[in-house]
Design a protein that fits this description.
The structure is a homodimer. Chain A is elongated and about 85 Å long. Chain A is of the alpha/beta class. Chain A has 3 domains: 8-60, 434 Repressor (Amino-terminal Domain) (Orthogonal Bundle), CATH 1.10.260.40; 65-158 and 291-312, Rossmann fold (3-Layer(aba) Sandwich); 162-289 and 322-328, Response regulator (Rossmann fold, 3-Layer(aba) Sandwich). In chain A, the strands form 3 sheets. Chain A has a 6-stranded parallel beta sheet with strand order 2-1-3-4-5-11, with helices on both faces. The first copy, chain A, has helices at residues 8-15, 19-26, 34-47, 53-60, 75-91, 105-115, 131-137, 162-175, 191-207, 222-234, 247-259, 277-281, 291-306, and strands spanning 65-70, 95-100, 121-125, 144-147, 157-160, 181-185, 213-217, 241-244, 269-271, 286-289, 315-318, 320-323. In chain A, helix 1 crosses helix 3 (34-47), helix 5 packs parallel to helix 13 and helix 6 (105-115) packs parallel to helix 7. At the A-B interface, helix 4, helix 5, strand 2, helix 6 and helix 12 of A face helix 4, helix 5, strand 2, helix 6 and helix 12 of B. Chain A binds a DNA duplex through residues 7-9, 17-21, 23-24, 26-27, 31-33, 36, 51-52, 54-61.
DNA sequence: TTGAAAGCGCTACCAC
DNA sequence: GTGGTAGCGCTTTCAA
């Protein structure tokens, strides 16, 4: 490959200085005469020179890239998270190297391995991976920030405040007079699903110890919400409120109820979690999460960690906000 | 930074061979004795060696990464596109380097510049950037694939088959007996909006030359759909079908019609474009686009181009599929 | 089949 | 301040 691209040497030659000086100018070192700087820069300009990143990385052992490993996600959650990360990363002069990690731990390992040497740190969201599997798959010696993942003793960790959100939701339902509140949960291996479910139980136990507690386990999608709601229907719908573990499940519930001509919210209240755009259109009561903010924060922490600040390995919680809409409205 | 990571030299020493042989083994060159290979591999194993990517890149002038530059996108479209790209990229042994490019051309230039040397090629979607601006911002000498972007003489280009989708839609409406079909278009500077609008006109002219043609220009959002529909309402709703340029506009139309107590689809049929999740929920007739497939295809073409196949600079169209639902149902 | 060595382009240390 | 230069870790001729 004799791609004769201009190198730092060409610039040095044209400017009449050494490569060392050119390098200094390019990296903003202060020990350079303004005159030198000017000459070098004009040579750079004239040649249309651009530094070779790989060479620089080899020299500095820095890539200025951040690896982002996420599960197979859909829709708004994914795009919001990426938006937040991208914004923070550009601000800090980092690029994002993205890859999906599927449920399979060994594949996740391959993906993470492929990032070795390409990134200065990794942000990983692996709610489906056990702590041990994850730690095993992660390249050693690279700063890591966890998002919504189990464990968190080894790395800084960001989590959605599922407990706060779900507690507020249960309180809201109770306050609006609901007595038989059922929770449609996601798969409980998923940490968010687990926490929301736990928070539901705890909130019920604390706020309304005499009322029945019931959890129907499903998965984080619309079809699951439909199926679980149909099963309630088969029982004669012995509840007056359905709190789903996320908005998609709530959507499934709404559809099933509508098809069965059960009035929402008059007969049954329905609530979700996440506040996807859909929720607003459907006037669905839900819990909003600042996903973009969470992504940005993850980048911030990681960059700090890359820069050597071994500050704290503590877990931070991304605040949530109860949004009450029509589906839990009147009664 | 004396991070004493094991290098190829350590492996060579332990295996009792030269670095050249280790390199050959690692790169699967055939001219190595099985015995040699075995010894090298066990040394690799023993040391937990992993090649330094930057060094390899410097040597080979290959990064095995693809740059992806997208506008600030929301929701399903973004995540689907990324999913498709990620899948294809992993399959081909590439990683994705992602960055948003905002409307500002100079910022877009910076982003693209930052990718130089980090990627072997770029996939760019810049419907908002003029062809000249884009070409100016793009690093020279790097393979590029365009998605939904103006121009396309310089690079292979992928586009949504707006024409096919809209034509099928118009045909469907005509077949179901609609006679006065109005099109709510997006801003016609947007290439998709323009094409859909043009396809509507052409399809009407070809399939029903005697029927009236009418385009109301708006923008790709719900509020615009509402506003345009209200203006039709003010005229006494002189149409029996509304084809919006996307689902959000159709949603706006639906809401306005519902508020005005105009029966859908009995009195007026409504259709959208994109098949966002909302469309399914609202039972909205629309045109589905295989976004993930489009992303995967873009990667395929780019990788081929990186590999030196200077095949065709032609534009490919991502197929669409008419999805008929209740909003254009009976009559 | 294997090894020695010349780069790849850049940074940073050490002299001057 | 500036220049020379030794690596950074790898791939790939060219010889043996």
């Amino acid at each position: 490959m004799t791609e004769s691209v201009t190198t730092i040497r060409d610039v040095a030659r044209l400017a009449g200085f050494s490569v060392a000086s050119v390098s200094r100018v390019l990296n903003g070192h202060s020990t350079v005469t303004p005159a030198t700087r000017a000459k070098v820069m004009s040579a750079v300009e004239a040649l249309g020179y651009f530094p070779n990143i790989a060479a620089r990385s080899l020299s500095t052992a820095r890539t200025h890239a951040i690896g982002v490993a996420l599960p197979d996600m859909h829709g708004e959650f994914f795009s919001e998270l990426m938006r937040g990360m991208d914004r923070a990363a550009s601000d800090q002069g980092y690029l994002l190297l993205l890859s999906n990690i599927h449920a399979d731990a060994s594949i996740a390992g391959q993906v993470l391995t492929a990032m070795r040497g390409r990134v200065d740190g990794i942000i990983i969201m692996a709610p489906q991976l056990a702590e041990g599997e994850r730690e095993n798959a992660l390249p050693r010696g690279l700063p890591v920030v966890l998002i919504n993942s189990p464990g968190g003793q080894e790395h800084p960790s960001l989590r959605i405040d599922n407990t706060g959100g779900m507690t507020a939701m249960v309180a809201h339902l109770l306050q609006s007079g609901r007595r038989t509140i059922v929770h449609l949960s996601g798969m409980l291996e998923n940490i968010d699903a687990f926490e929301r479910q736990l928070a539901y139980r705890n909130a019920m136990a604390r706020l309304a110890p005499d009322l029945p507690v019931r959890v129907l386990e499903g998965s984080f999608d619309e079809a699951s919400g439909e199926a679980l709601t149909r099963s309630l229907l088969a029982e004669g719908m012995p509840v007056d409120a359905i709190v789903a573990a996320n908005d998609m499940m709530a959507l499934g519930a709404l559809q099933t109820l509508r098809a069965a001509n059960i009035a929402v919210p008059d007969r049954v209240a329905v609530a979700g979690f996440d506040d996807v755009p859909l929720a607003r259109y459907l006037d669905l009561t839900t819990v909003a999460v600042d996903i973009a903010g969470l992504g940005a924060r993850a980048v911030e922490i990681l960059v700090r960690s890359i820069s050597g600040e071994t500050a704290g390995l503590k877990t931070e919680f991304c605040q949530t906000r109860l949004i009450t809409r029509a589906t839990t409205g009147g009664r």
